[in-house]
Amino acid sequence: xxxxxxxxxxxxxxxxxxxxxxxxxxxxxxxxxxxxxxxxxxxxxxxxxxxxxxxxxxxxxxxxxxxxxxxxxxxxxxxxxxxxxxxxxxxxxxxxxxxxxxxxxxxxxxxxxxxxxxxxxxxxxxxxxxxxxxxxxxxxxxxxxxxxxxxxxxxxxxxxxxxxxxxxxxxxxxxxxxxxxxxxxxxxxxxxxxxxxxxxxxxxxxxxxxxxxxxxxxxxxxxxxxxxxxxxxx
Length: 234
Known about the structure:
Blueprint: E1 17-24, H1 31-43, E2 48-53, H2 68-78, E3 85-88, H3 100-110, E4 114-121, H4 122-126, H5 134-140, E5 142-146, H6 153-159, H7 162-167, E6 178-181, H8 191-199, H9 210-220
Parallel strand pairs: 1-2, 1-4, 2-3, 4-5, 5-6
């Protein structure tokens, strides 16, 4: 299935396809992203995980954020041989800035035979009550929370209390509305690290998929030459 076309509909697909939405700038995609997504798919019984590449907000400075098509191309090539993981440009075709609630609503309308779940890190979970329509998201979609580096899902769960817990009730089944904490083994890799290593002329071998390694080096070595500044990832 070609997930990158925003006009594609699943009209002829009868079985429900459980699909995780894994959003990010992927600037660039790396082995940590891929390893984590595989684990989340297995732990949450997801049929597919869509790497939802976030578009650049035209109202904000790009910093070192590479153009949308460049980041999407790297994700597409990195996932080409992955049986469950897919690249998606869906948000490129939505009004900007893109809000997760709007994206999920639009996806549900366009793909009625898919059941979407939101995959987010523990840091975002702690800020989740501030998200646009956060209560609506958890009432209609499963939210699967994974730890970020130096976090543990148990600690994340214990940190979510009172109003945050009340705003995000937990369901028993993955496909029912609710929040589910998943333990995952994280690789100590970040996109910021990759960009820094490339700028220093150091190897990123083993940190990014081999099929995009040379391309990552070529693209991100040009950051300073192109006058791109430092971009701090959220």
